[in-house]
Amino acid sequence: MYRKIFTPSEQNSNIPIVIPRTWYGQPVEVIVFPVFEGVEITPQDLAVQERRKKREELDRILNEYPLDLSNFKFNRDEANDYD
Questions:
Q1: Would you call 56 exposed, middle or buried from its count of C-beta atoms within 10 A (0-12, 13-18, 19+)?
Q2: Contact yes or no for 6/15 (Cβ under 8 A)
């Protein structure tokens, strides 16, 4: 999820939306609604934000250091061989 909060005015009524590169080629949905003052952030919201940050960091690392597993084949017998 990508979230951007801003206050529109006449000068920026045509606001471009920056899409993360990892979303290129995928369908995305854009939802716009007003944010009301005084809305409290719950502990659940904070937990969701923290998990999102961790997931985005993991995605960044995985994209930065790609690992080719195209020729990998799991061998159950080899995995269970403890000798």
A1: middle
A2: yes
Residues 50, 41: Cα–Cα separation, whole Å: 13
Domain boundaries, the chain: 41-65
Residue listed under structure tokens 């471009």: 16
Q: Say whether 71 sits in a helix, a strand or coil.
A: coil
Euclidean distance between CA atoms 69 and 56, whole angstroms: 22
* 26 alpha carbon, distance to own chain's centre: 13
Give the model confidence (pLDDT) of 48-69 as tens digits.
Answer: 889 999 999 998 888 888 888 8
Rounded to whole angstroms, how far apart are CA atoms 51 and 43?
12
Q: Give the global pTM.
A: 0.36
